[in-house]
Amino acid sequence: MTQHASPPRDDTGKVPSAGQPPVWRGLFAHADVRTLSLLGVLAALILVGGITKPDEFLDTRNLQLVLTQASVIGVVTVGMTFVIMSGGIDLSVGAIVALASVWATTVATQEYGFGGILLTAVLVGLGCGLVNGLLIAYGGMVPFIATLAMLASARGLALQITDGKTQIVTVDSVLDLGLRDAYVLGIPPLVMVFAVVTVIGWLVLNRTTFGRRTVAVGGNAEAARLAGIDVRRQRLYLYLLSGLCCGIAAFLLIILSGSGQNTNGNLYELDAIAAAIIGGTLLSGGRGTITGSVLGVLIFTTITNIFALNNLQSDVQQIAKGAIIVAAVLVQRRTASTT
Amino acid sequence: MTQLPTRRGLLFGAAAVSAGAVLAGCTSNDSDDEPAANDQPAADDKPGKAVTIGFAGPQADHGWLNAINDNAKSRAKKYSDVTLEITEGSNDTAQQIGQIETLINKKVDVLVILPADGKALTQVGLKAMRAGIPVINLDRIFNSPQAYRCWIGGDNYGMGLNAGHYIGEKLKGKSDARVIELAGLDNLELTQQRTKGFDDALKNYPNVKKVARQAAEFTVESGQAKMAQLLQAQSKFDALWNHDDDQGVGALRAIEQAGRDDFLMVGGAGALSAFQAIKKDDGVLKATVLYPPTMAASAIDLARALGQSKGVGGLAEFEIPASITLYSAVVDKTNVDQYMSTGFK
């Protein structure tokens, strides 16, 4: 709706369907092509895994493993996708995960058991998101700078809380969620949370005013403002959302690793941004899909898995990862421009 | 001219601090957070000439480095004649150089330096030596022997060697034994050295074959992730060597999650949680190979001996050695009690 009011601005210049009138429909069509090409990449990877290590790769346990390892960064990426779509960036996600995970695993917090740990993780995530959001939306700070500052402070605070020590979790109800006995119909609880967050994220983005406002703010903030959207409040909510996702991810990480450490969430910001970009989210905002981002996460996790199963070392892994990012983006651009 | 009051202030401060240290030393000897280790001083315990030791290390962002700081502090506290000037740790090369230059300007008697990056800090080591301040280089070695008076540190190659021998002996008589390795951060030379030692040791046991190796990042999170993949990749193996007990917390978690217990695991470094698991003896972790953080305590002792122009007690020489490589002992159920107090969190 707001698109008609938008003059050609630099940050929307890359929308490929700029010339076609039914904008929303056009966007969805393109999203579908992108999603299909991502599925193609994933299928190719599965083929490689299946050929090189048929027994280990094509195995229910391996599927559970890949999805479990994807769940922590996956939840972070869902939040990141919203932020990037609004034209922002959140560099502090890894640091917030670290801070939330150590705050939630101090001896004092652990005394409150399951609820205390979960609540602390979520509240710390929300709190950091609130600070980010206020600085950006009402303090007029550039997202890059505000979240970079949060990255530094949250990491510092995490180090101060732990004193560099590994905080081991002793609350059984939390630990048990990571064990095989907790799987329901073969689905690990972590994967269920990941799935629920993904579905909610998809619904919010595609079926609510909040989602449409996010796209509008990212496409052209000035036009969105003229159309009556409270851009500031929308931005505040988006960083809160990202913080919330980090809090949830921190709780998942506590379950997964049975501990809290200030080194947690190392370089999550880059992993989440890379997954979102591979998934077709435009770094300048205005376009992106949750499905694409989640597929991006799954592609990365599958690559790591295939490499580990084939006993390839980290140097080869890193080189190949870089090459695959470039390849995936090129393939997408090709398929997107030919339709 | 303006230096005079500063120096007097410094001396007075030093005296006050050491007086405080004596008091603290009297009261805190039996507190349990003090790493006990071997209490014998390098030189002798007779109070001698007052020595101000400057200590500069990297940011203590994980357990082992934190234990380095604790060991240095508590050792210095033991001596009434030692004043410790400890800097805020930093991983930033430029910042650490600045901190060391400050210590040089303060004219401390001896410097103990654990560089964030040995090669990058060589110049400032040289600068201190030229200014007449002897340097004890702790663990991460400088590029030039002229940059330090004495180097003391762990033995990464020996760590791998001892882990390999321990595993080799345990698997003796087992045909086609399969071993896997969970390495630390591959970017670091020390990881390559550990792996080299491990491989060399395994060559002595023709029945043992290393079938897989993955590198984690010394963090719990990466240990869990990489171990989970290794377990999926290797449905059957007999032994695992994990380079680092911190990432071992994650590795043990992955093993628990996969419900596996059909192999023996050896750790590395010497964390308290690893010692406790070894003592309990109800899981796969049977031993760990030390990379002792007590080396910081020894460095303080060496610095004190150097400042007082003494040699090492029990050695024939009048001076402290130029280089000391520590032994990476294997701690298992039989000797774990002795090491328990040195375990770091």
- Helix proportion of residues of chain B, in percent? 40-55%
The pLDDT mean of chain A sits at 89
How much of the residues of chain B is beta strand, in percent? Answer: 15-25%
Please write the CATH class name of chain A.
Mainly Alpha
Number of strands of chain B: 12
The global form of chain B is: elongated
Overall strand count of chain A: 2
- Choose one word for the global shape of chain A: globular
Number of domains of chain B: 2
| Assigned CATH architecture of the largest domain in chain B | 3-Layer(aba) Sandwich
Number of domains of chain A: 1
Distance between the termini of chain A: 24 Å
Report the order of strands and helices of chain A: HHHHHHHEHHHHHEHHH
Spatial extent as radius of gyration of chain B: 22 Å
- DSSP summary: helix tally of chain A: 15
Describe the structure.
The complex is a heterodimer of chains A (339) and B (345). With 339 residues, chain A is mainly α. Chain A has helices at residues 23-52, 54-57, 60-85, 93-103, 107-110, 113-138, 143-162, 172-175, 189-207, 209-219, 221-226, 231-257, 268-278, 290-309, 314-338; strands spanning 167-168, 259-260. In chain A, strands 1-2 form a two-stranded antiparallel sheet. In chain A, helix 3 packs antiparallel against helix 12. The relative contact order of chain A is 0.20. By secondary structure, chain B is an alpha/beta fold. Chain B has two domains: 3-154 and 293-326, Rossmann fold, CATH 3.40.50.2300; 156-290, Response regulator (Rossmann fold, 3-Layer(aba) Sandwich). Chain B is built from eleven helices and twelve strands. Chain B has helices at residues 3-27, 63-78, 93-105, 122-130, 156-170, 189-202, 220-233, 245-258, 272-280, 295-307, 336-339; strands at residues 51-56, 82-86, 110-113, 135-138, 150-153, 177-183, 208-215, 239-242, 264-269, 285-290, 323-325, 330-332. In chain B, helix 2 links the parallel strand 1 and strand 2. Mean pLDDT of chain B is 88; it is low at 1-35. The chains are: A mainly alpha (339), B alpha/beta (345). Chains A and B meet through helix 3, helix 12 and helix 14 of A and helix 2, strand 7, helix 7 and helix 8 of B. Chain B: Residues 53-308 form the Periplasmic binding protein domain. Chain B: It is found in: Cell envelope. Chain B: Residues 1-24 form the signal peptide.
